Automatic annotation (TrEMBL):
Keywords: Sigma factor, Transcription, Transcription regulation. This is RNA polymerase sigma-70 factor, ECF subfamily. The keyword Disulfide bond does not apply. It holds the Pfam family Sigma70_r2.
Amino acid sequence: MSGTDIAHRDHVSLLFRTHYLWLHASLCRYPDSSSYAEDIAADTFAQLLSAPQEIAIREPRALLTTIARRLIYQLWRRRDVERAYLMTLQQHEPMLSPSPEALAQHHQALQMIDAQLDGLPEKVKATFVLSRVHGLTYPEIARQLGISRRSVSDYMTRALSRCLTTHTSITRESV
């Protein structure tokens, strides 16, 4: 750390001790920023501290106010984007979300698959779920589970065989 860096840090530290409470109080007056006043005040001094070089500050309160206002405007812009995104999601959600009946059918199907795979090793079950439910390819499954592609193929054969056997026995019992 150079002498300039230490001098700059000491100068910002002095400004912090001298003006932090004033800046915090003035930020509390901005609408919708009083809950973030501490964060904005701290970020203001952090930006001042991260300046690439020591700058001569003739009017510290004016500089601190300018930096803080920019941070507040960034916060407001970020909130506007978030609000717009949430509104877009709400508008499209009815089209994207399945009906309660569809959810119940999916839940029943998953329970039936779980019952059919009961007793198989976890990697066999995981392989089947990753393939059939999540739509992963065999190479993707192999990478995710840390197994060979051949093992993925064997596990899928084993799981499908179990499902077919269970399905056949259920069909015979119902007849």
